[in-house]
Amino acid sequence: MEFSQKTVENIPFCTIKASPRDELWSNRLKEEVKTLISYIKSTKESETDWFYIKPINKQGTQWKGYCWFIYEMKKYQFNLEFELPVSYPHTPFEILLPELEGKTAKMYRGGKICLSLHFKPLWSQNVPHFGIAHALVMGLAPWLASEIPDLVAKELIQEVTI
User: Fold this and answer.
1) Distance CA 135, CA 93 (A)
2) In this structure, is residue 71 part of a structural domain?
3) Using H for helix, E for strand and C for coil, what is the string for 5-70?
4) Which residues are bridge partners to 81 per DSSP?
5) Would you state the pLDDT for residue 6?
6) What is the reported pTM?
7) Is residue 160 part of a domain?
8) Calculated CA dihedral for residues 69, 155, 72, 104, nearest 10 degrees
9) How far apart are CA 98 and CA 159, in angstroms?
10) What is the spatial distance between Cα 39 and Cα 9, in angstroms, rounded to a whole number?
11) CA nearest neighbour of 144 among 114, 120, 121
12) At 10, phi and psi to the nearest 5?
């Protein structure tokens, strides 16, 4: 997983300012998917892919998948889910890693990772340009990089065996 200014600059921005309740939501959703495809394609080409997600309802507001993190040559994988709120994109969504609930102080009830201090102010400055891909790259990726080494050191998570 790579997180840098260059990575962020290579993720296309969204332009449509429509929430799930707006008439233009289908256009915003297409834009979100296009942005995700662009980012995922670049990570696969550079062999740095680190998540898999897909919408689980036809409105494109509920998503599930998994993410993984390589630390000390070991792979740690977690279920990933989120739901876009009706106020999206004005309000960022909450990213859940349910199986890590209660294992770190940087998490809220239900397995919601803490993004309020660093990411939410950045999001509010970039509405409507940030989307799902941006939240994963600038929210989830740094959270994993910060928390996984600590969880490994405390022996609270186990590597994935293939």
Assistant:
1) 8
2) yes
3) HHHHHCCCCCCCCCCCCCCCHHHHHHHHHHHHHHHHHHHHHCCCCCEEEEECCCCCCEEEEEEEEE
4) 64, 96
5) 67
6) 0.91
7) no
8) 40
9) 17
10) 11
11) 114
12) -85, -5
Cis peptide, bond prior to residue 55, ω within 30 of zero: no
Residues 6+ away with beta carbon under 8 Å from 117: none
How many separate domains does the chain show?
1
Q: Which domain holds residue 50?
A: 5-153
The catalytic residues are: 114
Q: Answer yes or no: is 161 within a domain.
A: no
CA 152 from centre of chain:
21
Q: How many residues does the chain have?
A: 162
pLDDT per residue as tens digits for the range 88-106: 999 999 999 999 999 998 8
Residue 51 · residue 136 · CB < 8 Å: yes
What are 19-48's pLDDT values in tens digits?
999 999 999 999 999 999 999 999 999 899
User: How far apart, in whole angstroms, are the C-alpha atoms of residue 5 and residue 156?
Assistant: 31
Looking at the chain, the whole-number percentage of residues with pLDDT higher than 70 is 95
